[in-house]
């Protein structure tokens, strides 16, 4: 039996961020993952992610995001890797829609700098993008790109330097509380720790059934050739989200060496993470290809790459972070519902606070698992 202060289950962006924060505080930690580092079976791959501040989903995320930006910068400096690049962000949709109204509400509530642009103003400033007259655009400078693989390697490298052990190809098959702590079984070995942190993403329900109601959703980001046109570079094109019709969202990121990335969000099938189809089909590509034709008409329409990734969704699409409802020695950090990557830098700190029994530096009580108990009891 191998003994640790903490076992982290999962080494995606959340697990690696938690591992770094625990180890850097002197907590003897081991991190277990069923796959190799930077695998493409979960939710933390895909080359790039958007980071933004004027959060349309819920203004309560803003304090977390303020710290997330600073924490990413600190990890970037410590690791010597380029993790983040600011491009600005353009949010476009109907004035009464969820996206534009939400961005404006959050920006005004928190005093965030932003500009409301007409269609002509947006197209003049960002010639890669074409909008229609019925859409309103909101631009914020505090938005940009996170480089996914670099972020994971920064966290794991710093965690290893601080003494964290990593066990890849170690599939967790069970756990149980004991008088000494929590025992975790993984690929024939037993690990005993005072605390367990689950960052298992799509496999959370498999390992911790009943902890939180989750649905795993299949998503397909696609890359298109920019033909090396400068208008698609990070200097000229912002990250963007568009809501063309109510509840129908697309997003995109500029060319950073692998084409322009675009996808439709929260439109995928509900799947099992162990049996999901990893083959990208014409039906996956068609709606994104049509969107690119409408909104990025100067971009090459033929996809040059694609991948399948997984969202782990809660019923309200907010995160699930906090103690397991039946075992306080286990902290569940999962169900980021397709918008969690950008928060990893701050949530790693928050979870380390929880493991140490401290008050979290940013309030996340509204994201606790307890909010689901009454509804799903």
Explain what you see:
It is a single chain. It is built from nine helices and 21 strands. By secondary structure, the protein is an alpha+beta fold. The protein folds into two domains: 2-44 and 149-209 and 316-372, FAD/NAD(P)-binding domain (3-Layer(bba) Sandwich), CATH 3.50.50; 89-141 and 216-313, D-Amino Acid Oxidase, subunit A, domain 2 (D-Amino Acid Oxidase, Chain A, domain 2, 2-Layer Sandwich), CATH 3.30.9. Strands 1, 2, 9, 10, 11, 12, 20 and 21 form an eight-stranded mixed sheet that branches. An eight-stranded mixed sheet has the order 6-7-5-15-16-17-14-18, with helices on both faces. A three-stranded antiparallel sheet has the order 3-8-4. β20 and β21 (327-334) form a beta hairpin. The longest helix has 18 residues, at 62-79. The model has no long low-confidence stretch (mean pLDDT 96).
Top keywords for this entry?
single chain; 377 residues; alpha+beta; FAD/NAD(P)-binding domain; D-Amino Acid Oxidase, Chain A, domain 2; 2 domains; 8-stranded mixed β-sheet; 9 helices
